[in-house]
Amino acid sequence: MRWRGDRQSSNVEDRSGSSGRPVGKIATGGGIGVFLIAIIVFFISGGDLNTVTDTLGGGITPATYETENVSSKEYTDQKEFAAVVFAHLEDYWDGEFAERNETYQNPKLVLFTDSVNSACGQASSQVGPFYCPADQNVYLDLSFADELTNKYGATGDYAMAYVIAHEVGHHVQNELGISKQLDKIRQRVSETEYNKYSVRLELQADYLAGCFSKYLAGQTYQGQPILEEGDIDEAITAANAIGDDTLQKEYQGYVVPDSFTHGTSQQRINWFKRGYKYGDLEHGDTFNEKNLDLASAA
Ligand SMILES: [Zn+2]
C-alpha cells in the first residue's frame, strides 16, 4: 500500500506509553483459547467484554511476551501506517453515510501495549485487536502486525489494513444499529445459538473491509494508485489464517463448528471478496440464511 506522507487521522490516541514498544515474541504456547481469556478478563474486571467484537476466532494459543524494544523508527512507521489507514476509513465511511443522508460519527483508534482499559472492561493484547461499542474505540496493540506475520503467516502491510478495516466495520455495524439488535438476541438465546449470530456479525465486518478495499483501489496518492500489486491477496491470506476452522485445527487439532464465532476461513475469504466486488451495503446481508455460504464473490 502506498501510504508514506499521506494524511493521518487525528482520531488516534497512543496509550502505548513510549516511542518504542515491546515486540511480541512467542515463548510458550498454552492452548487456552482467546475466547476463554476474554471471559476471564470479563469476570475479573466486571466489565462487559461480552459486547466486544474482535478480529480473531476462539481457540487461539495465547502468546507469552518477552520484552524487546523495537526501534522507535519501526514503531513510528507502524503507527503512521495505522493512522493513514484510519484516515482513509474516515473518508470512505463519511462518504458512504453522507450518500445515504445519514451522519457518521468517526471512531477513535487507541494504540496500546500489553493491556488496556476500555469501557468494555480491561483487555489483554492476547484477545487481539477489538472494537468496544460502549466507547466507540478500536483498540490495537501494534505488535499484532508481528503476530500476523510470524504466527499466522500473513505478511505484507495490507494484512494489517484489513484487520483495522474489519474493526472499523464493527463500528459501522454499531452506527447502523446492527450491534444493538444482536445484543437483544444475545439475552434470549443459548450460547451455541448466539455463536451463529456472532459468525454473521463477523463475516459482515469482513464484507465491509472488502467494500473499503474496493474504494481504496479507486484512490490515488501523488498520482499513483494507493493499492499496490498483491495488497488484496495479503488481506485474503490474513482472512484465511484467522478463520475459526483453521485456528482450531492449528491450535487444538480438531474443529468444533458449534463454537465458531467468526466463520470458517472460506467464509471469511468469500465475504471479503464479495465486499471487494460490490462495495455497497446492499450486498452485505450475512444474516440472510441463503447468503451465508455463498460461493466466492457470487
Ligand atoms: Zn470482528
Automatic annotation (TrEMBL):
The keyword Membrane applies. It comes from the Bacteria. It is found in: Membrane. Residues 1-16 have a biased composition (Basic and acidic residues). GO terms for cellular component: membrane. It is a single-pass membrane protein. Its main location: membrane. Residues 1-23 are annotated as: Disordered. The keyword Transmembrane helix applies. Keywords: Membrane, Transmembrane, Transmembrane helix. The chain crosses the membrane at residues 26-45. Pfam families: Zn_peptidase. This is Metalloprotease.
